[in-house]
Amino acid sequence: MGSKNKLKRFRENETFSNVVQPTREEVLEGNFEYRNNWSSDFFRNEKPLVLELGCGKGEYSVNLAQEYPDKNFIGIDIKGARFWRGAKTALEEGLENVAFLRSQIELVDLLFGENEVDEIWITFPDPQIKYKRTKHRMTNSEFLQKYKKILKPKGVVNLKTDSEFMHGYTLGLLHGEGHEVVQANHNVYKNTYSPKEVTGIQTFYEKQYLEQGKPITYVQFRIK
Question: Is 70 tagged catalytic?
Answer without folding.
Answer: no
